[in-house]
Design brief:
alpha/beta, 6-stranded mixed beta sheet, Rossmann fold
Length: about 500
């Protein structure tokens, strides 16, 4: 079946998967959505024996219908290779009554690698298919992980350039070092004086600026995105939920058709939305447990039906979740309206202009698969310590939020279904917070002191990504004000 994509905000134009990937954002500012969510073609029993790469093909071919088998298998093969430190790509670890889906075995030790290893290949194939005349400029805001993973994927890819904005002081030391030491003649990193929402809003504003787009085209460029607003980011994320279920089945942990729950530490909503897509495709998922940190805008939304970003922005020890505007929620809103683009557009306008919106009772009912929960920094630290002391297994601060929320949910509801927890980053990426959660406050300000201590605590070998930044020179020094992002992009592209 040939699947087309259209905007969540009502633009009637239908585009192919490759066009949606190439553009990143629809012309009216909406996000691209498939006109229908396809069903898995193989039975889950058949999927149980497949490798990660084979699973990826079975899932992605259903969405990317204008890619040939050769094109798609080529992209998958180049993405999921020795860049990952395990053949499984996304192993499942059973610990403390749950199944932790480790999504951090790629080159930048965070779950963003799962999609951003393949996006550059999907993008370059898409450019060829659509006879793109201009070089593609990947413009991205990051709360810490997307930026590095995107740059690692796009570094020195012919016909592309990538510009990443991150909040100065709003990411971990390891995250910042990973970005500012990034190699590649086509990579640029800019620290903005503001938070992630400021960076994300600035990027969206640039995408929506038609006059600037013309100016950039005259320079020989066109914009696209590596954020999860790009459907080429979302589709690869569906794969690992299907793979996790298949592995549980293969290992005899569940029976075919048995329902599981999925818990996801959530910021921009893309990762948990991918699990929802997997459910819509036929994967037996019951509850999607949306875990927030102190920035609990999503928890409040699922509880009340009111999305309200007008609140204090709190910097936490799980910085990739420090987000008050969850872009991918727009896709769920769109589905909950019965795919009414006009209605979705009005709600997004309310969010931009008033800072909030409220959904109807019918829409809330259509989101009944989701359950919100949140964990404070103190609860997060206590959970990391508990899991380590009970099992010897070390989790990072984002996984800690999800683990804590899952445990509270199970205790409150009595729901004993087997649960997959998305483990989104290596503990080495947030070593100070993890070590201090387990052993108490330390006296050093040097992140690498904590990295060495974590190595001793966990017994897990130091990832290559961490070894590399110990001695890598800083290559990127640029900073700008939050309202100076467009001018900064203009300067970079014009060579000034």
């Amino acid at each position: 079946m040939d699947i087309r994509y259209r905007s969540t905000r009502g633009d009637s134009e239908q585009v192919t998967a490759s066009q949606a990937i190439l553009r990143g954002l629809a012309k009216d500012g909406g996000l691209y959505m498939p006109e229908t969510i396809p069903q898995l073609e193989k039975s889950l029993k058949e999927m149980a024996s497949l490798t990660y790469q084979e699973t990826a093909y079975e899932v992605m071919k259903l969405f990317l219908t204008d890619f040939t088998e050769e094109e798609l298998k080529g992209c998958i093969g180049r993405a999921y290779d020795e860049k990952f430190d395990t053949e499984e790509i996304a192993p499942l670890v059973k610990a403390d009554g749950a199944y932790y889906l480790e999504l951090f075995h790629g080159s930048t030790i965070a779950f963003k690698d799962m999609a951003l290893s393949i996006l550059p290949h999907l993008m370059t194939v898409s450019a060829k298919k659509n006879h793109a005349e201009h070089d593609i400029v990947i413009l991205t805001a990051t709360s810490g992980d997307t930026g590095k993973a995107a740059m690692a994927g796009f570094a020195d890819v012919p016909g592309t350039r990538i510009i990443v904005f991150y909040p100065k002081g709003g990411v971990s030391q390891v995250q910042e070092l990973q970005m500012v030491t990034q190699k590649g003649d086509n990579t640029d990193v800019v620290a903005i004086h503001g938070n992630f929402d400021d960076a994300q809003s600035g990027v969206k504003a640039i995408f929506g600026d038609r006059e600037f787009a013309k100016e950039v085209e005259a320079m020989g460029y066109q914009f696209s995105s590596a954020n999860s607003i790009n459907i080429g980011r979302l589709v690869p994320q569906i794969v690992y939920y299907v793979y996790a279920y298949a592995k549980l089945l293969e290992n005899g942990e569940i029976q075919e058709g048995e329902q599981i729950n999925v818990t996801v530490p959530t910021g921009n909503f893309g990762n948990i939305l991918a699990a929802y897509f997997a459910k819509q495709m036929g994967l037996p998922i019951d509850k999607l447990i949306c875990a927030s940190n102190d920035n609990k805008v999503l928890y409040d939304f699922f509880k009340t039906g009111v999305y309200d970003r007008r609140r204090e922005f709190i910097l936490t020890n799980s910085p990739s979740m420090d987000i008050l505007i969850s872009s991918n929620l727009e896709r769920l809103i769109y589905l909950s309206t019965g795919c009414d683009g006009e209605k979705t557009g009005r709600l997004m306008k309310d969010l931009a202009e008033k800072g909030m919106y409220e959904i109807t009772g019918d829409m809330k009912e259509r989101m009944a698969d989701f359950v919100g929960g949140f964990a404070t920094q103190e609860e997060n630290s206590a959970e990391i310590k508990k899991v380590y002391e009970d099992t010897g297994y070390v989790i990072d601060t984002h996984t800690g939020v999800a683990s804590c929320v899952y445990r509270n949910y199970a205790k409150t509801t009595g729901d004993t279904k087997k649960t997959v927890i998305a483990s989104t980053a290596s503990p080495y990426k947030f070593s100070r917070s993890v070590v201090e959660a387990i052993e108490g406050p330390g006296s050093s300000d040097d992140e690498f002191t904590y990295i060495d201590r974590l190595n001793a605590i966990s017994g897990v070998a130091l990832p290559q990504a961490v070894e590399e930044i110990k001695s890598a020179p800083v290559r990127h020094h640029m900073e700008c004000e939050k309202d100076g992002m467009k001018e900064t992009v203009r300067g970079i592209l014009s060579g000034k």
